[in-house]
Amino acid sequence: MAIVIGILFTIGTYLILSKTLLRIILGTSLIGHGVNLLILTMGGLKKGGPPLLGLKESLFTDPLPQALLLTAIVINFATTALFLVLSYRTYNVLGSDDSEALRGCDDE
């Protein structure tokens, strides 16, 4: 699982360093998925009952990694949606999604 997380972070970093806005958005989304897998892996697999107060079990699973993972998924979805809307609006208004052209650094 650590190798998959490393590959997701590597591909995400490579895409963020590119020039087009769509690749940058995909890179941030891939890094978000890598973070989700990292949280899930660090939480570990614990065997036991559900963390309910009425049960008399001595072993129970920790609900914190699942809560953090759910929060991270929602935040990743929201930021990706926001970035896609901003990228679409930028392309419609300015006619380009190249970050070099948006900065005005044309080599002409």
UniProtKB/TrEMBL annotation:
Transmembrane is among the record's keywords: yes
Main location, first listed in the record: membrane
Location(s), subcellular: Cell membrane
Gene3D superfamilies, per the entry: 1.10.287.3510
Keywords tagged on the record: Cell membrane, Membrane, Transmembrane, Transmembrane helix, Ubiquinone
Membrane topology: Multi-pass membrane protein
Listed name of the protein: NADH-ubiquinone oxidoreductase chain 4L
Source organism per UniProt: Desulfitobacterium hafniense (strain DSM 10664 / DCB-2)
